[in-house]
Amino acid sequence: MPTVKGCNMPDELLYDVDNHIWFQEQGDGTVKLGMTAVATAMAGQIVAFTPKKAGRSVDAGKSCATVESGKWVGPAKSAAAGDVVTVNADLVANPSLANTDPYDKGWFIILKPTNWDQVKPTLTMGAQVTAKYEAKMAADGFAGCS
After folding, report:
1. Residue 53's domain spans which residues?
2. Cα 49 from Cα 123, distance rounded (Å)
3. Which of 75, 92, 100, 125 could form a disulfide with 63 if both were Cys (CB 3.0 to 4.6 A apart)?
């Protein structure tokens, strides 16, 4: 698993580095997505997670959820358009899961994408994410995960 300045970046995921979102194909035409360890470290302790409800649509480049921490409130933007199939109710009830386990228990939503064939090639494979994330972290002035 690549580690970028102390932040874990699992190989099997695809990354939208600019928006700090990871994607994982589920094998049934859906994708699971969530926030990277870099994003949760930059945001600090996540205190609220408000996803779009199941059945709602998400436009490409627009919010699939609102995330709030002590430092920041903002949208979690999905590179893929589609319909929300499932939301992580455990994360709604316990938002700090995004900090403690961003790639397993801290996932955001499962999306049935309408434009996956166009979006997937624009994402960065986990094995190739290190250089791109190092550049992003340097540009953002972020020293890394503790």
Report:
1. 3-128
2. 24
3. 75
